[in-house]
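quick q for whoever's on today - can somebody do inverse folding on this one?? i tried earlier but teh output was garbage lol. tokens:
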């Protein structure tokens, strides 16, 4: 009976996370900027077979200079499911699943508390910024980074506690994979780990341990080996890495946002943990003053990680809301500490519950605590929608996405768009590989007989002013324009 009950718990948890993590991944088209850029790198790698140098528009990509682990995973899924949103986003989905597994196993095996792990997963799966685009629900790097940063920290802590060398190897493996995911970003955890090691562990545990040096030099060899190998095939790559990653984003505000030092703190309160931010410090205090020494020590360890990482990203000039994603699992753990305290108290059958035949109150408590944030995550997953002001742009993407599936006609049609167009390029490239005659045209390239797809009103009006044309409304804000004769084309060019 006990095995059956345990199985039910795991099945229930799997059902809870299944839809938010894996459901409807292909509903929205590829997103602008990071996901589409990474998607194009993966798509070109899939088509050209160059698994070392990422390409964009046929040339080595010197803007997205991250190592290729994410691209390799996306290409792997492209071979299984074909090019598309599913292949781009499945690596992130599996990374989220494995992060849940890591947290659950750590709580169950080391802290001897399955329900703390169960509740930590519930807290994380209902964290707004984590279960959103740019992290769990997209083809970006961040979900994979969170997986490797979380597991690396847990393996490092496990070594400090047990002195078992196998955890050093696991740590360096996770660390190396983190570098292969998003370059130097995972190094931001280094200061916290070093401080914790100095405070709690004699340095000789590291300095006199041959396995430490084997792991360290293996990691350095694999990391430097990749960078040097790509530099040999793509001269100038290491210089571009230095400009993009080692100093560029940290020292220069690349988006001119003028965000304050408290940007991420405000983000926690307004979005990430808007419904539970007061529980985080309460959970931290519960952990610090816990009678269980294992809980107390892991709380101190996680608190140090969060503090140092928060200070580092807050000092960065370039700030994005998803840069705080690696903290989300740890804040979920702090939240779980206080929720699990009440859950355990209810589970131990207080006097007023002793008349019940079966104590369902603790489970009802969990249901009531998580039903509202879970419904919000479910809603964003089941029926995602475009943000206000982006409808016109993403309607074109949705149209092209349908075209790659054969649901609409794009043969001999061209897209008129003259700005950065990686998402459009992604779908157009797939259509070309499907033998569909399509592509891009700028306004100055238009001529009599062209059939063009337009969504943006200024571009549409500009074409109508310069040409006689037949306009066909497709759907949403999508129009097909058939160019008949130029009217003011020469003057418009001038």
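ok took a stab at it. sequence:
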């Amino acid at each position: 009976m006990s095995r059956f009950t345990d199985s039910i718990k795991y099945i229930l948890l799997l059902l809870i996370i299944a839809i938010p993590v894996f459901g409807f991944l292909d509903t929205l088209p590829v997103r602008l900027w990071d996901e589409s850029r990474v998607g194009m790198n993966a798509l070109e790698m899939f088509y050209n077979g160059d698994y070392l140098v990422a390409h964009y528009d046929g040339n080595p990509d010197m803007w997205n200079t991250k190592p290729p682990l994410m691209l390799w995973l996306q290409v792997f899924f492209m071979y299984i499911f074909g090019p598309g949103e599913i292949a781009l986003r499945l690596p992130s989905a599996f990374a989220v699943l494995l992060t849940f597994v890591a947290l659950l196993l750590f709580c169950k095996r080391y802290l001897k508390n399955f329900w703390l792990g169960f509740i930590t997963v519930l807290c994380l799966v209902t964290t707004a910024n984590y279960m959103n685009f740019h992290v769990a629900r997209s083809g970006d790097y961040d979900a994979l980074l969170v997986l490797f940063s979380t597991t690396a920290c847990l393996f490092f802590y496990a070594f400090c506690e047990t002195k078992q060398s196998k955890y050093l190897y696991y740590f360096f493996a996770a660390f190396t994979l983190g570098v292969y995911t998003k370059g130097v970003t995972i190094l931001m955890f280094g200061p916290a780990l070093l401080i914790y090691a100095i405070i709690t562990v004699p340095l000789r545990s590291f300095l006199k341990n041959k396995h430490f040096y084997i792991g360290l030099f293996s990691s350095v060899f694999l990391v430097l080996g990749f960078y040097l190998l790509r530099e040999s095939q793509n001269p100038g790559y290491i210089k571009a890495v230095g400009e993009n990653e080692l100093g560029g984003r940290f020292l220069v505000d690349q988006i001119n946002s003028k965000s304050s030092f408290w940007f991420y703190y405000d983000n926690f309160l307004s979005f990430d943990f808007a419904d539970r931010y007061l529980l985080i410090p309460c959970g931290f205090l519960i952990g610090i003053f816990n009678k269980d020494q294992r809980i107390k020590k892991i709380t101190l360890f996680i608190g140090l990680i969060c503090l140092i990482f928060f200070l580092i990203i807050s000092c960065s000039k370039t700030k994005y809301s998803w840069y705080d994603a690696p903290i989300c699992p740890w804040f979920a753990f702090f939240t779980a500490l206080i929720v699990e305290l009440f859950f355990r108290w209810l589970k131990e059958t207080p006097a007023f519950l002793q008349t019940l035949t079966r104590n369902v109150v603790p489970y009802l408590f969990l249901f009531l605590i998580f039903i509202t944030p879970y419904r919000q995550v479910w809603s964003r997953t089941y029926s995602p929608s475009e943000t206000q002001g982006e409808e016109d742009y993403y309607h074109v993407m949705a149209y092209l996405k349908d075209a790659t599936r054969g649901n609409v006609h794009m043969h001999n049609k061209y897209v008129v768009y003259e700005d950065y167009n990686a998402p459009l390029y992604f779908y157009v490239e797939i259509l070309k590989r499907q033998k569909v005659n399509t592509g891009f045209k700028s306004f100055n390239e238009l001529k009599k007989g062209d059939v063009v797809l337009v969504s943006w009103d200024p571009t549409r009006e500009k074409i109508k002013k310069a040409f006689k044309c037949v306009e066909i409304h497709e759907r949403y804000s999508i129009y097909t324009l058939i160019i008949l004769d130029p009217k003011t084309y020469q003057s418009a060019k001038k």
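fwiw The beta strands are 55-56, 59-60, 413-416, 438-441, 451-454, 467-475, 478-486. also The first helix runs from residue 2 to 22. so keep that in mind when u check it
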